[in-house]
Amino acid sequence: MGWCTSNKQRLWLINLSKETQNYNWPFELDKINLYAYQNNFLSPKECEDIIKKGKSKELEKGNTNNNNLNKTRESNISWLSPIDNFILYRKLTDTILNLNKKYFGFDLYGLTEPLQFTNYKAPSGRYDSHVDRCFGTQIRKLSVIILLSDDFEGGDFELISGDKPEKLKMEKGKLFLFPSFILHRVKPVTKGERNSLVAWITGPNFKWKNIN
């Protein structure tokens, strides 16, 4: 049985239970949001500084778990550590902890992987549908994306959790946070360059019960 999300659904469940004589009552409602955001997380100057730093490092082809380059993903990336921008890491920490407390409630370790600067170029820069978690790796619980530039066309960012993908209203400097198990994609950039910053917040295993 799936969780209910409103009192109206609770009543529907009670009526259904009366009909089936199978009385069900969920202990808790699902309070995990699809995403959360922070407007103006970075200033235009901060965005430009991160782009400059990201491009100053040796860019490499963005990879996938199955090394299926070009078919799934076409982008260039570099990595930023706390040494590159301590203030940015401090700002991320405070904002992520605040948003997680309000909208997700996950147990977290922190930013145990470096930040990823990502550059998508027209006409085929993209990242097809994928999730950020991967079997046998650190347990990614939350994903961060921050748009660093807005002088491009295409490159929509979409979360896919139902029949119709939800296009997020990306703005330069705006931070989005979402569960790493949510399917998402970056659609092809058709003009210019799309620059963004990506991060993953890891944590202990999701709680489960051994039924063996």
How many structural domains does the protein architecture include?
1
Determine the N-to-C terminus distance: 21 Å
Order of helices and strands: HEHEEEHEEEEEEEEE
| Low-confidence region ranges | none
Query: Based on DSSP secondary structure assignment, what is the total number of beta strands?
Result: 13
Kindly identify the CATH topology.
Jelly Rolls
Mean pLDDT: 88
How many H/I helical runs? 3
Which percent bin holds the helix content?
10-25%
Query: How big a fraction of the residues is strand?
Result: 25-35%
Task: Provide the CATH top-level class.
Answer: Mainly Beta
**Estimated structural class:** alpha+beta
Give the C-alpha Rg: 20 Å
> Could you give a short account of the major beta sheet?
8 strands, antiparallel
- Shape-level CATH architecture: Sandwich
Protein traits:
212 residues, alpha+beta, Jelly Rolls, eight-stranded antiparallel sheet, five-stranded antiparallel sheet, 3 helices
Task: Describe the overall structure.
The chain has helices spanning 7-20, 44-56, 86-103, and strands at 36-38, 60-61, 73-74, 76-80, 115-121, 126-130, 140-147, 152-154, 157-160, 166-167, 175-179, 183-186, 189-202. The chain is of the alpha+beta class. It has one domain (36-179, 194-202): q2cbj1_9rhob like domain (Jelly Rolls), CATH 2.60.120.620. The longest helix is centred in the middle third of the chain and has 18 residues, at 86-103. The two termini are 21 Å apart. The mean pLDDT is 88.
